[in-house]
Amino acid sequence: MVRYKDLSGKEIVDVSTGSRLGILGHTDLEFNEKTGQIESFIVPNYKWFGMKKEGESIRINWKDIKKIGEDMIIINS
Predict the structure, then answer these.
(1) Given the DSSP bridges, would you call strands 38-43 and 19-23 parallel, antiparallel or unpaired?
(2) Which of 53, 63, 72, 76 has its CA 20 to 30 A from that of 16?
C-alpha cells in the first residue's frame, strides 16, 4: 500500500517525452468514491517557481504510473 505522504515531494517525469510534469504535493487527487483508491493526479501548470498559474492542468491516471522511486514518479502517458 502506498500512502500519500510517501508520494509527496516526488518529481513526476514522463518517460515517453522526457519532460518534468511537476512535483507531487502541488497536485489535486481524484478518488474513486466507492473504493477510496486514487484514480488520478491533477498537476497545475505553474511558471516562475510556483508563483503564477499558467495554462491547463495535467491529468495523470494512476494506471500510467510505471515506477515510484525514492525521488521520482515515472509515468508513461
Answers:
(1) unpaired
(2) 53
Q: Which amino acid is at 43?
A: V
Grid cell listed for 70: 525514492
Cα 20 to Cα 28: distance, rounded to the nearest angstrom: 17
Question: Alpha-carbon distance 58 to 13, whole Å?
Answer: 12
33-44 pLDDT, tens digit each? 999 888 998 887
Q: List, in order, residues 6 or more apart from 23 with CB less than 8 Å away.
A: 9, 10, 11, 12
Per-residue pLDDT of the chain in tens (77 residues, 90 and over written 9): 677 778 888 898 999 998 888 888 778 889 999 998 889 988 877 655 555 556 678 889 999 999 999 999 999 97
